[in-house]
Amino acid sequence: MSFDGAFTHAMVGELSQQLVGGRVSKINQPYNNEVILTIRANRKSLPLLLSANPTFARIQITAIPYVNPVTPTNFTMMMRKYLSGAILTGVSQAENDRVVHLDFTSRNELGDQVTLRLIIEIMARHSNVILIDLASSTILDTIKHVGSDQNRYRTLLPGGHYINPPAQDLINPFEPDASQVVSALVRDYPNEDVLAQKLRHTYQGLGQDTALGLAKALHQPGDPTDNFKTFFQRFNTPEPVLVTTDKGKTGFNAFPYGQEHVTSKSFDSLSAMLDFYYQDRAERDRVQQQGSTLIHVVRNELKKNRTKLKKLQATLKSADDADEYRVKGELLTTYLAQVTRGMTSITLPNFYDDEKPLTISLSNQISPSQNAQKYFKKYNKLKASVSYVNDQMAKTNAEIDYLDNISSQIELAAPKDLADIKAELQQGGYLRDHEHNQRSGKKKRRQVSKPEIFTASDGTKIEVGKNNLQNEKLTLHSAAKTDIWLHVKNMPGSHVIIHDADPSEQTLVEAATIAAYYSKARQSSSVPVDYVQVKKIRKPNGTKPGYVIYEGQKTLFVTPDREFVARLSAQE
Question: Can you state the subunit structure given in the record (predicted)?
Answer without folding.
Answer: Associates with stalled 50S ribosomal subunits. Binds to RqcP.
